[in-house]
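Q: What structure does this chain adopt?
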Amino acid sequence: MKKLLLAVLFAVFAMPAFAGIDEGIDKGMTHVFIMGGVAFPATQFEVGNTNYDFAGKGFTYGAQMMYYLAPVFGMGVEFNGTSYGEQTTRGISFKANKYSYMLAGKVNFMAEQKTRVYIPFGAGMATFKSEVDGDSETASKPAVYAGVGVESDLNDIFLIGFEVRYNYFWIDKERMGVDNGALSDLGALLKIGIKF
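A:
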């Protein structure tokens, strides 16, 4: 824990020593973000002619590291998770969790400006755990996302942003006992980060 705290303090207080950090995005720059927000299920379990909410709205969170190959385009890695709330449909209780490991990308508009609009996207694997009336099933399948966001430089080190994304992830319909092979949610995330 002490090493982590020292690493964070070093990152926060040593960043001004790096030359060339100013407003906007430069080629070779790296952004590291932590994210948190809310996710709303956008699809349902389909069983025969009946649809069931797979969960209620929940808390979504994550971390991302993005390296800029050019001011307008970055690639990186991301971990995100979602703890969906409990939802009761037709007397049946549904809860779920999802953990995703993604290759992430970002296309920036107005990359040289202090405040920028961007399109985030990603692809990877998601582990989805569904709990129906206390019985649970877990499976890992591919997942993708795309969205729109805005971020702004607070100073030479810190950034803040807001992002809305549509997450689409495949599920094991045989194990889950449903007819559809994929689910989705809509997430709204507040992002806080550093750049170097």
